[in-house]
Design goal:
Elements: H1 3-12, H2 24-35, H3 41-54, H4 58-71, E1 75-77, E2 84-88, H5 101-110, E3 115-119, H6 131-137, H7 147-157, E4 159-163, H8 164-167, H9 169-172, H10 175-181, H11 187-192, E5 197-199, E6 201-206, H12 210-222, E7 228-231, E8 246-252, E9 255-261, H13 278-289, H14 295-310, H15 317-329, H16 332-344
Parallel strand pairs: 1-5, 2-3, 2-6, 3-4, 6-7
Antiparallel strand pairs: 7-8, 8-9
């Protein structure tokens, strides 16, 4: 048993009236001790559930991210002149709505905006469909790449994926605790705003509950990150919904802007396409890339057009929708996928 970890556990787990918040350094130390398995399994599980009940503060989240920075993988992209978009989506995947995140990533990469994603396999507690499995279904398997190969892929094609079991085994080893405690621990929040690369970055983080967005903003400010976007997306992802107004927070050079987009104002307001099965989703995504019509194609255009506007490729959002539709129709996005898949087969 680690006596030093026990003291940190006592601070967060002493109950409603006597528990205390950790300092940034204490949160970093506690996270490192869990990642390195210096704390016992009982201590790790107790900390996770106690910290979830208490709710992590922005200072604590900043400390946890400091530990991820110290022990986790990092792509060295300081020499890279382009701004890299990092998409933060829940690691436990989707189980209700059909994702179009890979199409969004390909659209951005096609116009020269590199996109880095991260995650792992099907995770507890939701055990939803993870991004890595969708990419594999589309013929792009990132799971075997080394960190250096991942960086080369991102530099050459504009698409990269940090795969936890391959690139950050310390964090992967903590995944079983999520199943054992039956709840998402604060690590699930950390993952949404983790940035596994060094360089010029614009972070996009999905969220569900408004307090989470507030924590994101305060945490990223503490870490000196002044350019990021928060999305109240489908199941906490970066995908905009078509069944309700999109709530977006954009921070540019430290200045916050609230953006509200009603899909009905742009003739996208119908419903969110359900996720029936992984195989059916893959076929739907392939149809989108082939330029075929369909409800999920509308979701892809809604999202692709928004992100083209967000990153200043288009001067207004309607032009973004038109460009996204044209790119899909002309096969440019499908060509980007072929480029990525071809590189992965080398």
């Amino acid at each position: 048993m680690s006596n030093s970890f026990r003291e940190l556990l006592k601070k967060v787990g002493s109950g409603e009236h006597t528990s205390k918040n950790l300092t940034r350094e204490e949160a970093k130390v506690a996270t490192k001790m869990m990642l390195l398995q210096e704390a016992t399994p009982a201590q790790i599980g107790a900390f996770m559930i106690a910290h979830r009940i208490k709710r992590p503060t922005p200072i604590e989240l900043a400390g946890m991210l400091d530990a991820y920075d110290e022990l986790g993988p990092k792509l060295e992209l300081n020499h890279f002149k382009k701004t890299i978009t990092v998409l933060g989506t829940p690691y436990d995947g989707r189980d209700r709505t059909a994702p179009v995140t890979p199409i969004t990533a390909l659209i951005l990469a096609t116009v020269g905006i590199p996109v880095l994603m991260h995650g792992g396999d099907s995770f507890p507690t939701k055990h939803g469909l993870p991004l890595i499995q969708i990419w594999q279904g589309l013929g792009a398997d990132f799971s075997h790449l080394s960190l250096q190969q991942t960086q080369e892929l991102l530099e050459k094609t504009g698409i990269g994926f940090i795969y936890l079991p391959k690139h950050f085994n310390l964090a992967q080893n903590l995944i079983p605790y999520r199943d054992q405690i039956g709840k998402r621990p604060p690590f699930a929040t950390v993952e949404l705003i983790w940035c596994p690369c060094i360089g010029n970055v614009h972070l996009v983080a999905g969220f569900v509950h408004p307090p989470t967005e507030e924590r994101f903003q305060e945490t990223l400010k503490l870490r000196g990150i002044n350019n990021f976007t928060t999305i109240k997306g489908l199941e906490g992802s970066c995908d905009l919904s078509r069944s309700r107004t999109a709530i977006i927070g954009r921070v540019k050079n430290g200045n916050f802007e609230r953006i509200l987009l009603n899909p009905r104002d742009y003739d996208f307001g119908e419903h969110d396409v359900p996720l029936d099965s992984p195989n059916q989703l893959i076929e739907q995504l392939k149809d989108i890339l082939a330029g075929k019509p369909g409800e999920l194609r509308q979701s892809a255009i809604w999202n692709g057009g928004f992100y083209l506007w967000l990153f200043d490729i288009c001067s207004d959002i309607k032009t973004g929708f038109s460009l996204a539709e044209t790119m899909l129709k002309e096969g440019k996005v499908a060509e980007k996928l072929r480029e990525v898949s071809s590189y992965l087969r080398k």
